[in-house]
Amino acid sequence: MFELFWKHYPRKVAKRAALGAFNRLTRDEQAQAIEAIEEHVAYWKLKGTEIDYVPHASTWLNQGRWEDILDMTPKEVKRPSLPWYSSDELTLAKGRELGLYAYVGESMGQFRQRIQQHMAV
After folding, report:
1. Is residue 16 exposed (0-12), middle (13-18) or buried (19+ Cβ within 10 Å)?
2. What are the tens digits of pLDDT across the range 11-25?
3. pLDDT tens across 81-105, in order?
4. CA 82, 88, 90, 91 torsion: positive or negative?
5. Contact by Cβ (8 Å): 75, 48
6. Is the pLDDT of residue 74 over 90?
7. What is the pLDDT of residue 18?
8. Cα dist. 32→21, 69, 92 in Å?
9. Which distant-in-sequence residues (6+ apart) come within 8 Å of 106 by Cβ?
10. Average pLDDT value for the chain
11. Interatomic CA distance for residues 50 and 47, integer angstroms
């Protein structure tokens, strides 16, 4: 049964320690662990867990982690916010926020300078 567990466990380190932890479980616990591993792998993928942060199999088994209640809400991806001057669209939005609008014939560079001057005041 251990080989079935090991086949699905994503972090392949300390196999001997994992085997020892697995053998200390009851048959029922072993079956529960095997049944739960697919959901835990899906959870780690969903949360973007790097392999180094997946617990060793022995730790997972010793702590009875197959009984954990997993929050399968997708991890929120935080996009880095770009500075207002990095694109024309963001520059125009910053201008609107400050109550400024580009003049007819004014280049975007000139408008950015005007925004900066307004912000310095």
Report:
1. exposed
2. 999 999 999 999 999
3. 889 999 999 999 999 999 999 999 9
4. positive
5. yes
6. no
7. 96
8. 14, 14, 57
9. 114
10. 92
11. 9
What is the amino acid identity at position 97? E
d(CA 12, CA 8): 10
Neighbours of 111 (CB within 10 A): 20
Going from N- to C-terminal start, the domains of the chain cover: 2-67, 84-120
> What is the C-alpha to C-alpha distance for residues 15 and 116, in angstroms, rounded to an integer?
60
Q: What is the DSSP string of 41-86?
A: HHHHHHHT--GGGSPPHHHHHHTTGGGPPP--PPPPPPPPPPPGGG
What is the spatial distance between Cα 100 and Cα 111, in angstroms, rounded to a whole number? 9
End-to-end CA distance of the chain: give it in Å, rounded.
Answer: 72
